[in-house]
Amino acid sequence: GFLWKGQEDVSGGHCLVAWKNVCAPVQNGGLGIRNLDAFGQALRLKWLAKSLEQKNRPWAKSGYKLGEDVEKIFNSAAEFCVGNGKDTKFWTANWLNGGSIAWRWPVLSTYVGRSQLTVAQALTNNRWVRDLQGALSNEAMAQFFQLWDEVHTVELNLEEDTIRWKLSSDGLFTVSSAYNLFFMAREICPFSELIWHIKAPSRVRFFLWLAAKGRCLTADNLGKRGWQHEDCCSLCQSEAEDCLHLFVTCAFTRRVWRMMQGWIGINFLLPTENEPALADWWMKARMAFRTGYRSI
């Protein structure tokens, strides 16, 4: 409520940025506030990651189901290093080169029932073949022979199975790396971390963050909310007001930037009419400053 309106209570109509974007990491353009749903899933992934190391602990023997989605995420980011094969699921775990059997041979996997075979059980007298139900299609048959050839190159040993976490350099699971997994598909924001490192009061940095996202309460955003407003810019009285116009293309604003340019004695890039976005111009303009001055 304070960030959005400056008051304790706030309604949805005053929220300038969607909460899911606020909860994104700073490098993805958010404020880094923890997304509790994603963090909860990251903690549940820890159960699976530690299940082999602490399999004699009571929680590991409880048989608690973490959910199919959580297991799929885990199998995509964790690689099972098979020793004796007693703790690695044959069909769903990522233990063969290149991914799990269910992912690499999806057509063949549709003929598998609710199998919980471990690698050790499956490789004993080719027990995995009996999990296939019904007459295989031509494509499934081709995948069957590919899997047959690859499985027969596997040799088990007396060591216990282990897990290598692919998202960390040392192969060890961390909740932070699992949490960041949920934001990997998001675009990296080139200016977000810069905003929070500049030497300015917090309210100024927060305002700059809103302006770079085009979420200040300029005329266009007031219009979207159905609030009372004047369409024209109150400074130049000639063009429609939005964040780009107010801070970059407005004739009044450009004059302010020219005065600033003369005041500090540095010939930084002035905004132009064709500037695509406030953040793009800001990133170009700051390059005129020496590295030590850019945070100012």
Primary descriptors:
296 residues, mainly alpha, elongated
Tell me what the structure shows:
The chain is mainly α. Helices cover 40% and strands 3% of the residues. Strands 1-2 form a two-stranded antiparallel sheet. Helix 3 crosses helix 9. The longest helix is centred in the N-terminal third of the chain and has 15 residues, at 36-50. 20% of the residues are buried.
| Overall geometry | elongated
Please report the total strand number as a whole number: 2
| Uncertain ranges | none
Strand neighbour order, sheet with most strands: 1-2
Give the percentage of residues in beta strands: under 5%
Task: Give the rounded overall mean pLDDT.
Answer: 85
Helical proportion? 40-55%
Query: Biggest β-sheet: count, sense, barrel?
Result: 2 strands, antiparallel
Spatial separation of the terminal alpha carbons: 29 Å
**Structural class category:** mainly alpha
Determine the number of helices (DSSP H or I, runs of at least 4 residues): 15
Question: How large is the radius of gyration?
Answer: 28 Å
* H/E topology pattern: HHHHEHHHHEHHHHHHH
Question: Briefly, what is this?
Answer:
With 296 residues, this protein is mainly α.
Topology:
Elements: H1 2-5, H2 19-22, H3 36-50, H4 68-77, E1 78-81, H5 101-104, H6 106-109, H7 119-123, H8 138-151, E2 162-165, H9 175-181, H10 192-197, H11 202-212, H12 219-224, H13 243-249, H14 251-264, H15 278-285
Antiparallel strand pairs: 1-2
